[in-house]
Amino acid sequence: MVTYASGPPASSRDRIITEALRLFGEQGYAKTSIAQIEQAAGLSGGSGALYRHFKSKDELLVQAVATRLVDRGEWDQFMAPEFSIAAALDSVTPDGDLVAKLVALCRIGLTRLDHDRDVTRILLRDNSIPAALLEVFREQEYAVVMAAVTKGLRELAGPHAPTQDWDATAAVLVGALAHFWMMRDIFDGGHPADVDTDRYLIATAQMIAARLDWADPEGEDRR
Length: 223
Known about the structure:
This protein is an all-alpha fold. Helices cover 64% and strands 0% of the residues.
């Protein structure tokens, strides 16, 4: 059970969401019962108190994940139309080359996955979740992240970017990060190939950098 910080007490609904996501992430959606969630949230287990807030376990899961996904906090800035991802990467790595900037972008992606580990586990590892949740994830997280990463790659690529398929490149990058996060989580923090985070991110960044350099019509090496 989560220990709640001092201050205004969390509502029953908020406690249910927090504990449900924790239990879903730890033991899976199908294996988590309504009674377990109620008890973890400080309610009487098996009393049906959860149904005062949610019609079903499916509705609880969808609404809980949707609530967490839209709570982006510091990541909101990356979604703003006027925000320059390339400029942000320049500020993080002022003397860095292209690979260093891409590594920084990859670290931002891993941090986002770590932001709410339970939600990430549910989305990446649990095949028992309802289809409605997949659509919520597609619209409220994946499409938003893909748009931001694609925009960042276009900015890093320069003026020739519109002629290239940066959507596909972004999908490769996002997929590589999600896979690495999932494998580490499955194997309790270590990758089964015994590749640490720095090595993996540098290798990923080098491959994306090669794609950016290959796309340069002038053949300029921007690394």
